[in-house]
Design brief:
Amidase signature (AS) enzymes, 482 residues, alpha/beta, eleven-stranded mixed β-sheet
Length: 482
């Protein structure tokens, strides 16, 4: 068999057609590699061998019958453990849901399997997707494949590390304020946050409902285009899923980007940006200029208020969404409580970790009587101003290029005692989340210590094709190597 850790979607499809391996053989190899290295990597919380082999056998039967196979046929895929998978555990990396078995599939899961993907396991993450380092998992941290003493980023650290470490060619994650793009940057993978509403959220365990997205990780832009095309589109089970038509992202992928105007926001290249990161991102802009793009300096003036706005809105929504985990139906129930009130209190205290607890408390406070207008309503007004900044910018530019994070992956334990410093790692990603636009991280080289750096490409609502074309052109021109 070809080197499993180097396989892409295209090479898998070619290998299956040439009979160099079967889908079952590939699934077994994916499970073997991931299980053998999981103690050291911490990437997976659980494996799904029966489901994987059954899906692989369906692909092999289709190939044997000469039938047309799906765009992801036989491709091993990892799924972040906040996305429902029927009959399998969906723990959200929390003690509160440690034994919860999902009763249905998320729409995204149903669609990737319909496209032929083979789900091999559920990936580790920050508890309930709340975090920027994957250290908030209730079970164990994920280690960055590029530097095992460093974090993979969060909250989708397991999904990013699965791809970057070679345990799965593609994976699904979720992004609320940077939880796909930041770990993609830290690990050296491609990661996409689609436009809000482009991908159904049905079956995604809610953190902040107005900000949550499901999106792909991959090693190449084309593979992300194939995965995004498989999961995007309207869904009657999710009223926020947009009815906008879905392009053939992979089929329309082009390395021709000459004439595109790319905005360079001055607020993203100033104080706080580490020199090594800024140097690589600016070199990426220069490469795009060489491909015929026209850099244009722009301003996104309300960026300075984004952190405050985001952490008021997302914690308020988290407080509301996590109220359901009270020990009554499907979450952890504390034993030995004498009264209903004690059972509520003890179940939540035992089930939730410190970061989740912190966000629930903050969110409950900002929604409380007397503080709603001063905090939550004001944060929503700021959100509208940030969205307006982007709308005005996209009147003159086709895309915006920024760093993903001010710094590369930091060491495990380095920021856990300072939540504010941890929150600042998302300073360049939360603005796109608040505006609901599309964004992706593509590798743009490494620091002198060999740590991956990501470049962020932001485009207007439902303009993922432009974003993908820019990323693909950058990749084809050698930009990933920096």
């Amino acid at each position: 068999m070809d080197d499993f850790k180097q396989l892409t979607v295209d090479s898998i499809r070619a290998g299956l057609r040439a009979k160099r391996f079967s889908a079952r053989e590939l699934a077994r190899e994916a499970l073997r590699v991931a299980e053998a290295e999981n103690r050291a990597s911490g990437v997976y919380l659980s494996f799904t061998p029966e489901r994987a082999l059954a899906a692989a056998d369906r692909v092999d039967a289709e190939l044997a019958a000469g039938a047309e196979i799906g765009p992801l046929a036989g491709v091993p895929l990892a799924v972040k453990d906040v996305i429902m998978t029927r009959g399998e555990k969906t723990t959200c990396a929390s003690r509160a849901l440690e034994q919860f078995v999902a009763p249905y599939d998320a729409t995204a899961v149903e669609r990737v399997e319909r496209a032929g993907a083979v789900i091999v396991g559920k990936t580790n993450c920050d508890e309930f997707a709340m975090g920027s380092s994957n250290e908030n998992s209730a079970f164990f941290p994920v280690r960055n494949p590029a530097a095992p003493d460093r974090v993979p980023g969060g909250s989708s650290g397991g999904s990013a590390a699965a791809v970057a470490g070679g345990y799965a060619p593609i994976s699904l994650g979720s992004d609320t304020g940077g939880s796909i793009r930041q770990p993609a940057s830290f690990c050296g993978a491609v990661g996409i946050m689609p436009t809000y509403g482009r991908v159904s959220r049905y079956g995604l365990v809610a953190f902040a409902s107005s900000l949550d997205h499901i999106g792909p990780f991959s090693r190449t832009v084309k593979d992300s285009a194939l995965l995004l095309g498989s999961i995007a589109g309207p869904d009657p089970l999710d009223s926020t899923a947009a009815s906008a038509p879905v392009p053939d992202y992979a089929g329309e992928l082009s390395a021709q980007v000459r004439g595109l105007k790319i905005g360079i926001p001055k607020e993203y290249y100033g104080e706080g940006l580490e020199h090594a990161v800024g140097t690589k991102v600016r070199a990426g802009v220069d490469l795009l200029r060489g491909l015929g793009c026209e850099p244009v300096e722009i301003s996104l003036p309300h960026t300075r208020y984004a952190i405050a706005s985001y952490y008021l809105i997302c914690t308020a929504e988290a407080s509301s969404n996590l109220a359901r985990y009270d020990g009554v139906r499907y979450s952890r129930r504390s034993e030995g409580s004498g009264t209903l009130r004690e059972m509520y209190r003890n179940s939540r205290a035992e089930g939730f970790g410190p970061e989740v607890t912190r966000r629930i408390i903050l969110g409950t406070y900002v929604l409380s009587s007397g503080y709603y207008d001063a905090y939550y309503r004001k944060a929503q007004e700021v959100r509208a101003l940030i969205a307006r900044d982007f709308a005005e910018a996209f009147e003159t530019v086709d895309a915006i290029i920024t760093p993903v994070s001010p710094f590369p992956a930091f060491k495990l334990g380095e920021k856990t005692s300072d939540p504010l410093q941890m929150y600042l790692s998302d300073i360049y990603t939360i603005t796109g989340s608040l505006a609901g636009i599309a964004g992706m991280s593509v590798p743009c080289g490494t620091t002198p210590e060999g740590l991956p750096i990501g470049m962020q490409i932001l485009t207007n609502h439902f303009q993922e094709q432009t974003m993908l074309n820019l990323g693909h052109a950058f990749e084809q021109a050698g930009g990933f190597e920096g």
